[in-house]
Amino acid sequence: xxxxxxxxxxxxxxxxxxxxxxxxxxxxxxxxxxxxxxxxxxxxxxxxxxxxxxxxxxxxxxxxxxxxxxxxxxxxxxxxxxxxxxxxxxxxxxxxxxxxxxxxxxxxxxxxxxxxxxxxxxxxxxxxxxxxxxxxxxxxxxxxxxxxxxxxxxxxxxxxxxxxxxxxxxxxxxxxxxxxxxxxxxxxxxxxxxxxxxxxxxxxxxxxxxxxxxxxxxxxxxxxxxxxxxxxxxxxxxxxxxxxxxxxxxxxxxxxxxxxxxxxxxxxxxxxxxxxxxxxxxxxxxxxxxxxxxxxxxxxxxxxxxxxxxxxxxxxxxxxxxxxxxxxxxxxxxxxxxxxxxxxxxxxxxxxxxxxxxxxxxxxxxxxxxxxxxxxxxxxxxxxxxxxxxxxxxxxxxxxxxxxxxxxxxxxxxxxxxxxxxxxxxxxxxx
Length: 431
Fold this sequence. Notes:
By secondary structure, this protein is α/β, with parallel strands linked by helices. The protein has 2 domains: 203 residues, Rossmann fold; 127 residues, no CATH class. It has 15 helices and 12 strands. The protein has an 8-stranded mixed β-sheet with strand order 1-12-2-3-11-10-9-6, sandwiched between helices. α2 runs antiparallel to α9. The protein is elongated.
């Protein structure tokens, strides 16, 4: 009894919904299992990236060596505002492979100059890092994408010895640039200067061709670690000075970490689309024949007056004056051919021929009417190639319509006279 009641309560719509839910669950589970996993090697040199190409090891190493390390996710203008002059003089800003829009370059340079004027120290890499120092990079030598550097000089950067670095192009100074014209090359790959230091204002900067020495996979190499420490401490470092504060800029990387970054690699899009599809199916299943049954609405047809008004408004909006005058002219010509009996050749000959034919057909009494018709036909022909005002168009159309009416009124007496003349001629012949 209870089974029969349950079966009776489970209607067609309920069974349809259950089947849809089961299918959607199977699809979601299948897509989740077969979806590509999150990439193990994040290429962004973030200080939070523990992959081979990240810089989390450098961040933790500097922290263990006594440096006060932090991350910055705002603009350089906000960074300058947050630092006092004393803090800026003891701060190293790390800009690894910065990415920014070309419209922001001038403002970023101005903020870095302000940072240097307060004694700040900068470590930056890559082509865009060179542009922030008003420089650029030249093309790397053939087969020199990864090279063992050759030290130059006796600076701390050079004493790091032979470092493995990806040569993305050597430093190319701008002769017009007074900011970094006194650069000192510490490491080079062939003809490319890949590690260069500068004194800028009260501060200084170090530029690398790429971020290779500081990434997690290379930091375990002794030369790479020495180069990192020398670049962080700066040329003015001594054993008597306290460790510098290190700020890793995370705002100018290719990928910015957000709250949704943890969902990278998950089939969020597929799950969202399937959920939306399920919602639509549920909506249609419950709305099917649930509302009141109504007859389709029959739209009333417009009356002839409404149609004429609409067409008039349409012609007025489009300023279609030539269409109106042409229609009135054709109606008059149709009356001339069908009711007066003029030949088509006469109509095509023009207004003068039409005037003469009307006088010949209707008599001398119709001469004023024939002249009026010819004049109005000339105006209509000119209106086809000229733009008339709305008032002039209305007057011409009314005149052509009146000519047609006057023509019909003149036809009856002329026809009667013609019949009378025929009867008179016939009676004379009989006599």
